[in-house]
Amino acid sequence: MNIQLIRIDDRLIHGQVVVGWVKALGIERLVVVNDGIAKNSMQKTLMEMAVPSGLKVSFFTVEEAAKNCNASETHEKSLLLFSNPVDVLEFRRRGGVLNSVNVGGMHYCDGKQQVSKTVCVNGEDIEAFRELKKQGVELEVRAVPGDVREPLEKYLTQLKNNP
């Protein structure tokens, strides 16, 4: 698989992804990596409805993605979508190859603290980001391709593990 971008966005498939990233990168396949959605036919059907015709979409559990994304012989330009950094870390632990992660949208809910306009994190997210960084993964915050790239690590030292 020709992975162009690995993105964390808790909304997964939506306008910023389809209009912004897909067009900017010439993406041919979206790959949603989420255990719950991969096992739920209704969720998959709803997400497929948000995908324009001509754009392919696949749904994998984290384990399936780690196996299939590295072993795939397809040369389609692909964008991997994760809803959280814990799944990205598990993808890497299971053998998924990644050097860089785009952190796009992680919305506020109870127990999270806001670190940028589009990113809110809890203790589990912080630990996953710290571990990814320790493993040499570049973490950049950017909602859309035209935004300025910001390194997520500039926020990590300021964060408390338990917001």
Largest sheet: 7 strands, mixed
Tally of individual helices: 7
Strand-pairing-aware structural class: alpha/beta
Question: Strands of the biggest beta sheet: in what spatial order?
Answer: 3-2-4-1-5-8-9
- Uncertain segments are none
**Gyration radius, in Å:** 15 Å
CATH architecture: 3-Layer(aba) Sandwich
Could you say which overall geometry the principal axes of the C-alpha atoms support?
globular
Q: How many strands appear in the DSSP assignment?
A: 9
Provide the succession of SSEs.
EHEHHEHEHEEEHEEH
Structure description:
The protein is an alpha/beta fold and 163 residues long. It has one domain (2-156): 3-Layer(aba) Sandwich (Fructose Permease). The chain has 7 helices and 9 strands. The chain has helices at 15-25, 35-38, 41-48, 62-71, 85-93, 123-134, 153-156, and strands spanning 2-9, 29-33, 56-60, 77-82, 100-105, 113-114, 120-121, 138-141, 150-151. The strands form 2 sheets. It has a 7-stranded mixed sheet with strand order 3-2-4-1-5-8-9, sandwiched between helices. Strands 6-7 form a two-stranded antiparallel sheet. A hairpin with a 5-residue loop joins strand 6 and strand 7 (120-121). The protein is globular, with a radius of gyration of 15 Å.
